[in-house]
UniProtKB/TrEMBL annotation:
Transmembrane stretches, start-end: 38-62, 74-95, 129-152, 158-179, 191-209, 244-262
Keyword annotations of the record: Antibiotic resistance, Cell membrane, Membrane, Transmembrane, Transmembrane helix, Transport
Pfam family, one: ABC2_membrane
Principal location class: membrane
Residue ranges of domain ABC transmembrane type-2 in the record: 39-269
Database matches in InterPro entries: ABC2_TM, ABC2_TM_bact-type, ABC_2_transport, Nod_factor_ABC_transporter
Gene Ontology MF term list: ABC-type transporter activity
Protein name as annotated: Transport permease protein
Organism: Microbacterium saccharophilum
Protein family: Belongs to the ABC-2 integral membrane protein family.
Cellular component annotations (GO), alphabetically ordered: ATP-binding cassette (ABC) transporter complex
Amino acid sequence: MTAVAEAPTRRGGVRALWAGNPGAVVQRGILAARSSSWIVVLSGFFEPVFYLASMGIGLGSLVGDLQTSQGVEVSYAAFIAPALLAVSAMNGAIYDSTWNVFFKLNYGKLYEGMLSTSLGPLDVAFGEILYALLRGLLYASGFMIIMQILGLNLAPTAILAIPAVLLIAFGFASLGMAVTSYMKTFQQMDWINFVLLPMFLFSATFYPITVYPEFVQGIVMAFPLWHGVELVRGLTTGVLSGDMLWHVLYYVVMIAVGLVFTTKRLRVLFLD
């Protein structure tokens, strides 16, 4: 009788938000990927590889060398490869934290079942984001190996691109899940691709940001992907600067905002 009486209090307090077991959500995601969606997961790895082969190697033979924002001359392939590495982390994280979450939230009713157990909304949010992070890490690690084979990692600091990529994936996964928690229809989800495509094309991915007028540069610098591209490019070329700390801070804020909004949204949907 006491346990029954205490249950509502526990669900209404801190324990309702966090049970300390996001690993259960990650484990469930890994098992689901192994049994049904591993081909989809694998296919996402090849997109940046094809871009690198066609544009970095093919078009790069016509373009020649480019100057990074730090003033270093590099080959075109070495210029776009770190950008594609950041894009790879973004794609791996964002697709898992948007479309995957959208189906579980609105059709699979998976989160409703999870939150009927001891798990809290923060467990679910953090677990899903960690799973998306694993996918981003998988893509990025494979792409880093290809960059190393092609000689596109120009400095020993390139190894630091892996934790940088994890930060990028974490930021996009957090914000992606927060946005998706408000989506109700497939038509609304199309807005995600509408935002991602211009970010991919204009975030100094294929050419320096200096080609734009100054007011356009300001818009591009507001994009999260631009911060990721600049951070990874600085690490792979070995040109470190204090501006990297601002890029890191941008993603730290992005992660915090995403976690707060996702947790609040899941609590409103299933616990209040």
